[in-house]
Every structure is written in structure tokens, then in C-alpha cells.
Amino acid sequence: MTAFIIGLLLFFSTHSSRIFAEDNRNRYIEHYGMMKWKLAYSIVSLIGFALIVWGYGQMRMDPVVLWVPPMWTHHLAALLTLPAFVLLAAAYVPGTLIKARIGHPMVAGVKLWALSHLIANGTLGDVLLFGSFLAWAIMDFVSSRKRDRAQGVVREGRIARDAVALIVGLVGWFVFVRYLHLSLIGVAPFA
């Protein structure tokens, strides 16, 4: 569990710099430059992510069960991740109405992904993993929206771009649920 917790701390320390330490982040970038910031950010994030994956895998081998969710919650989680994939796609398709309205669709998608997995999983490792991602995503979303308002950010989008995000999200969700989730995570979402 130690590696898992260290991984969460490393991963979220980098991903929370704009929430809790934006001045420090800006000073670092000013002193060392954006490329060195991105390099340091990426290295720490990747190490953290690797420790999360490894530590979570270790915790799954000897789980501490807090509750046993009913089977229907697994199906609900699989369905709730569908809009999470669409939100993720909308974050990368330029000019979507989704991004114009939500502002930060990737973070909104992470919130939905984490919530759906909290509903369907009841071990200590699940609560720590998905609960920490949900808490971070809520804080980051609020912080990002506040920063957008302070900077006067205005986004525009077109419905045709949403159609692209919808198709990409649906295809990505289908491929992941049908083919990748079992082989990568060890759980068949609709089994």
C-alpha cells in the first residue's frame, strides 16, 4: 500500500499545482522555462502513475473489502463511463459546444469515471483510488472554472464538432469496454 500512496501523492502533487501552488508553478516556469516544467511534470507524473498502477495491482491481490456492491452497479458504471469517454473526446476535438459550455470536459469526464467506479467497487484500494481521483477532479474543476472567469475566458463551439466528439467517444468507449478493459484491468464490464 505504501507504493500506491506514494504514487497518488506524486501524481496529484503535479496535477494539483495550479490548484494549490500556482505562484510556485509560475515562478518555476519563469526561472527554468516551460519545457523544463513540462519535463519535470511529466517525469513525476509518470513515476506516480506507475506506482499507482503497481500498488493498486498489489492491493487487488489481497483486497480489504469494505462493502459488496450489487451486480447492477457494474452495469451502471459501464454505462456512466460512456459520457465520460465523450467528455474526454470533447476535450481534444477543437471547437465543441461541450467544451464551450463545460469549459474543462476532461476533468468532468474524470469526475464521472471516478464516481461510476466508486459506485461499483467496494474495496479499500478502490475507495482510495477512485475517491482520490473524484476529490481531485472536483477541486480542479472548481479551480479551473474560477481561473477562467478571472481571466475572462470565452469559448465558442459548433454542434458539428460535438458530433465528432460523440462518435470518437462512442467508438473509444465501445473498444475499451468490449476489448481492452478485461485484458488491461482484469474485469469484464458487462459480464
TrEMBL record:
Gene Ontology CC: one annotated term: membrane
Annotated localization: Membrane
Membrane topology term: Multi-pass membrane protein
Q: What range(s) does the NnrU domain occupy?
A: 4-189
Keyword Ligase found: no
Q: What is the protein named? A: NnrU family protein
Q: Which domain of life is it from?
A: Bacteria
Q: Name one Pfam family in it.
A: NnrU
